[in-house]
Write a structure and sequence with these properties.
This protein has a single domain, classed as TIM Barrel. The protein contains eleven helices and eight strands. The N and C termini lie far apart (about 55 Å). The relative contact order is 0.12. It binds 3-methyl-2-oxobutanoic acid (KIV). The site of 3-methyl-2-oxobutanoic acid has 11 residues, from strand 6.
Length: about 280
Amino acid sequence: MSVQTAVKRVTAPDIRARKNGEPIVMLTSYHAHTASLVDRYCDVILVGDSLGNVMHGFETTVPVTLDMMILQGHAVMRGSKHALVVVDMPFGSYEASKEQAFHSAARILKETHCGAVKLEGGKRMAETIAFLTQRGIPVMGHIGLTPQSINTLGSFRAQGRSEAAWAPIEEDAKAVAEAGAFAMVVEAVAEPLAKKITASIDVPTIGIGASSACDGQVLVLEDMLGLSPWTPKFVKRYGDLGPAIQEAIESYAKDVRSRAFPGPEHVYGMIKPKVVASND
Ligand code: KIV
């Protein structure tokens, strides 16, 4: 009998249990290849709708569709073995009703095999979060700056930078936690507020432009690798891959133009025909 040594994937309840524990490490990925790199070091891989900006060059995440998220979510599942894969619900796929949200989230789970979905919004989405979690769909919340609301917000600005603006954000965090989310992203929120929220709810907070006191951190992979055209204040660049990639492409173009590539080692020779011994 063969012993199976399958790697057990991190689950939403595993992440839920990390409140006040070892910080949760989360990065985005949209492809099988980067997913396999990220998977070695992260607890959670987020297939973020930021793929609209990063992969497709959209100015906002509003044009991203459910089909786009499912295609890339499935790719990330194929490329990873260990991390919990969370797929973003795109704008327009969940806001109309809790039933619409269930249908969209069920499609994501069935067609990608991921472990959870993420959706944006606080109090206004609490009923939907409860509806999904009660029906077997783990939900990661997302409060603070919610980029899908760009057309009503007007700009991507940090939230809660005066104490007078704290109450609605605190209420959002509480509502998402009470609705049953297993964790929540806290994006671009003043540091003392992110700290206060983290201390006041029993669900892990995952910060981006928030606070080191959050229960975990997330960044967009391309931002931290230096592959994005601009770097928001809250991103620490852990690499500067842009110039290295450009240099490699420049060398390739030069080699093709000078016929230095492909070299003899990159081309296929002929197979020598087998000499068949004759009895004559
Ligand atoms: O879409 C995304 O990548 C996100 C993160 C920035 C949290 O939602």
